[in-house]
């Protein structure tokens, strides 16, 4: 059972990246999903959520209008499209999945991806 993240890298400010997270060993469609990020010395921060029951995704204000969370249940994969990237978006990004309602509470998540580095240069 795992989530395999990919798609990070180095990009200039204003650029775009798409993160992917492929699930194996479980059916992602049954799970609420979230994207989190972490910089050294700080707590892991939730930035976007999507419930397993549908409905509107949720975004933290710092990424609203620039990032889009999505999922492809046929591919058992979740995504984070990141546009208009800023240097302050630089972090390690993590995907996560949990049964039940979506939440920004890190400890409630059942599965985590390994993290992928996103670096935005000014």
In short:
The chain is mostly beta strands and 122 residues long. It has strands spanning 2-6, 9-12, 17-24, 32-38, 45-50, 58-59, 67-72, 77-82, 91-98, 111-112, 116-121.
What does this structure look like?
By secondary structure, this protein is mainly β. It contains no helices and 11 strands. It has strands at 2-6, 9-12, 17-24, 32-38, 45-50, 58-59, 67-72, 77-82, 91-98, 111-112, 116-121. Strands 2, 4, 5, 6, 9, 10 and 11 form a 7-stranded mixed sheet that branches. The protein is globular and about 40 Å long. The N and C termini lie far apart (38 Å). The model has no long low-confidence stretch (mean pLDDT 96).
From the alpha carbons, calculate the radius of gyration and give it in angstroms: 13 Å
For the largest beta-sheet, the strand count, sense and barrel status come to: 7 strands, mixed
For the record, give the distance between the C-alpha atoms at the N and C termini, rounded to a whole number.
38 Å
Q: How many strand segments?
A: 11
What general outline do the C-alpha atoms trace? globular
**What's the helix count?**
0
Q: Which class of secondary structure composition applies to the elements?
A: mainly beta
Question: Low-confidence runs (pLDDT<50, min 5 residues)?
Answer: none
What letter string, H or E per element, gives the SSE order? EEEEEEEEEEE
**Average pLDDT for all residues:** 96
Tell me the strand percentage band: over 45%
Tell me roughly what share of residues is in helical segments.
under 10%
């Amino acid at each position: 059972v795992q989530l395999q993240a990919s798609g990070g890298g180095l990009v200039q400010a204003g650029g775009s990246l798409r993160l992917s997270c492929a699930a194996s060993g479980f059916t992602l469609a049954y799970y609420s999903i979230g994207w989190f990020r972490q910089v050294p010395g700080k707590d892991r921060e939730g930035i976007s959520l999507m419930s397993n029951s549908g409905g509107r995704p949720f975004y933290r204000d710092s990424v609203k209008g620039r990032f889009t969370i999505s999922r492809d249940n046929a591919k058992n994969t979740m995504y984070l499209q990141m546009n208009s990237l800023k240097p302050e978006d630089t972090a390690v990004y993590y995907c996560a999945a949990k049964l039940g309602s979506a939440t920004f509470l890190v400890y409630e998540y059942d599965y985590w991806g390994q993290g992928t580095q996103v670096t935005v240069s000014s």
